[in-house]
Design a protein that fits this description.
- The structure is a single chain.
- The chain is mostly helical and 255 residues long.
- It has three domains: 124 residues, Tetratricopeptide repeat domain (Serine Threonine Protein Phosphatase 5, Tetratricopeptide repeat), CATH 1.25.40; 65 residues, Tetratricopeptide repeat domain (Serine Threonine Protein Phosphatase 5, Tetratricopeptide repeat); 49 residues, no CATH class.
- It contains 13 helices and no strands.
Length: 255
């Protein structure tokens, strides 16, 4: 999945984070197993831990919830997401399969499984899952699925198909990475005007991020628009002076 460096797979919004120490057995902790709300509370705790980057702790919380509700497809899906974010795509697929075995029409789990297949380079299986989810007209996060399909077609080198799907993913309700990947695809297709539009839309959506003006600045530099690029490199230094992006900006500014 390369033009320069492609973004994360959408929908799962995969992030790296600090993992907590692994426990040998899932624990209910302070939760009363007789409390009917315990599974829900354990799921909520797991999601909070995932937001903090504590993937192993989140996994243990989901496992504890499964001890109480082993046939709950939502918990299996969340466990799969945690595994996928932790880099265990094969283990994630096992969890998503369990979720789908319990609820075959569970489009979240099917889309997430497609993302896991994509991580493993199993493109035909990933495409089948994504297309199946898009056939579910009630599914809300269609923009995320189109981004996933766009990433898949980029991996195959089918940039025309990637462009069409990424355009449907690069919308306010879709993942920010869709704009960046769309810009890269437009560059590959020889459409610099459309590439610039995509990069600027990404920057407008997240003006606090230093990587986006850097991306646009590098693009403008390649286009021979040095003065505009310099302005963006200086913006990177202002936003995140100690970041890797700032180091790249300094190099482009000549030190």
């Amino acid at each position: 999945m390369r033009l320069e460096r492609w973004g994360v797979i959408a929908l799962l919004a995969v992030l790296s984070g600090c993992a907590s120490a692994r426990s040998t057995q899932p624990s209910l902790g302070d939760f009363d197993p007789k409390d009917p709300l315990a599974p829900t509370l354990l799921m909520q705790r797991g999601q909070a831990m995932m937001a903090e980057g504590r993937l192993d702790a989140a996994t243990e919380s989901y496992k504890a919830a499964l001890k109480l509700q082993p046939t709950n497809p939502v918990i299996h899906n969340l466990l799969g997401v945690a595994r996928l974010q932790g880099g265990d795509a094969a283990g994630a697929i096992e969890a998503f399969n369990r979720a789908l075995g319990l609820a075959n029409s569970y489009s979240d789990a099917r889309n997430n499984r497609g993302a896991a297949y994509l991580r493993l380079g199993q493109y035909a299986l990933a495409e089948a899952d994504f297309l199946s989810v898009l056939a579910d007209r009630s599914y809300a996060n269609r923009a995320g699925v189109h981004f996933n399909l766009g990433a898949l077609y980029v991996s195959r080198g089918n940039f025309a198909a990637a462009e069409g799907n990424l355009r449907k993913g690069a919308v306010p309700s879709g993942p920010l990475a869709a704009y960046v990947m769309l810009g890269q695809v437009e560059e590959k297709l020889g459409k610099p005007v459309l590439a610039e539009i995509a990069y600027r839309e990404a920057m407008a959506r997240a003006p606090e991020r230093a990587d986006l003006p850097l991306t646009l600045g590098l693009f403008l530099d390649r286009q021979g628009r040095r003065e505009e690029a310099v302005e963006l490199f200086r913006r990177v230094l202002s936003l995140a002076p100690d970041s890797p992006e700032a180091q790249q900006a300094k190099e482009r500014l000549g030190g």
